[in-house]
Amino acid sequence: MTALIAEIGLNHLGDEQRARRTLDRVLQAGANSVTFQIREPRFYESTESSHRRLPEGFYREASIAVHRAGGQFGIAICDESLVGGLEAIGVDFWKTLSWDFRNDRLRTVLRGTGRPVFFSTGLSSMKDVVEGSKGLENAILIHTQLSQKTADVNLKAIPAMARGTGLPVAFGLHCSRHDVLKAALAFEPHSMFFYVKERGVEGLFDDAHALPLDGLAETLDNLKELMQALGTGEKEEMEKPAWVVK
Description:
Helix content is 30%, strand content 18%. The protein has helices spanning 16-29, 56-68, 83-87, 104-111, 126-132, 157-165, 180-185, 216-228; strands spanning 3-9, 33-38, 72-77, 93-96, 117-120, 139-143, 169-172, 191-197, 211-212.
């Protein structure tokens, strides 16, 4: 079944208590997996509090909490120099950001861990995706469009990318119309990534397309139930219901 991956990303705004609180609520809501995001060194040179780096000890605690809940812990990362240290705390999978799809140095380091790597393709054309996927192993592509508009989502790209590359394809929500997640299920993506947020917080890095923590459990329950509607594809004979007129 499609995995439901909640991305806390940078929506903790450098606040360790908010990060911990968000993680707890995501796990209580029933997400299969959780990711945090770590940006390139230059990002953290800013004096803004929202650009504070969470301590490595936090990620260790987060990994333990996710595993205790029966989930998987992922990191979306831009800085390859941190991969070795993070690998040691129990990262189950990695994610690259859209602008790093063709970052060969980062690719090499991540693939060297032996863990699955999700490659976001939000800035790439289909031609770029096909060419850039050659030689990738243990990789999952993520189809996403960095646009809030429903008309830009292009869900049909999910099977098209799978055919063109021979790789599994996940879906990443960047649309402000959250019901797009339900429509995406029909295309059977490997996984679905969606950002989460606390309500009433200003300056979030991922806002309109992020799912509010309030109501997240209901949303995930609905998605899990709808997955069952996909079935097996085999049409089976059924007994005539009692209400059918003979």
